[in-house]
Amino acid sequence: MSDVVKTLLIALETELKQQQLWSASAPEPAAMASTVPFCYDTMALEQWLQFIFLPRMQALLDTKSALPSKISVLPVATEAFKVHGKRVLPLLGIIARIDSTLSGEA
User: Fold this and answer.
1) Taking Cα atoms as reference points, which of 20, 28, 9, 16 lies closest to residue 71?
2) pLDDT tens column, 47-99
């Protein structure tokens, strides 16, 4: 499963860049320290994906640690990215595959 997850994470990064949702600079340290889900009080979801989710998932893969077995990013992503319309459907599809793969539904 780790190879599938690794491929999906690369696809997520690539799609964020294609959608021009990739940031050149990290949020302030205080924003990164948020304790609410998805850091929604301090950053946009695309920032959370780039600066929190992707690095943490990569660290788990690098150390061969257990991956999360229940994940549900798609509902919040659907809401967060709805302002972008249909152009983000490929991004939402990748997030849906990450959710289903890690939750054992794939």
Assistant:
1) 9
2) 999 999 999 999 999 999 999 998 999 999 999 999 999 999 999 999 999 99
Rounded to two decimals, the pTM is 0.93
Give the residue from 35, 75, 64 showing the smallest Cα distance to 52.
35
Q: Helices 89-102 & 74-81, crossing angle to 10 degrees?
A: 170
Place of tokens 């490929």: 90
Give the SS3 label for residue 82: helix
Tokens of 3: 């190879």
For 65-76, give one letter per residue: b (16+ CB within 10 A) or e. Answer: eeeeeebebbee
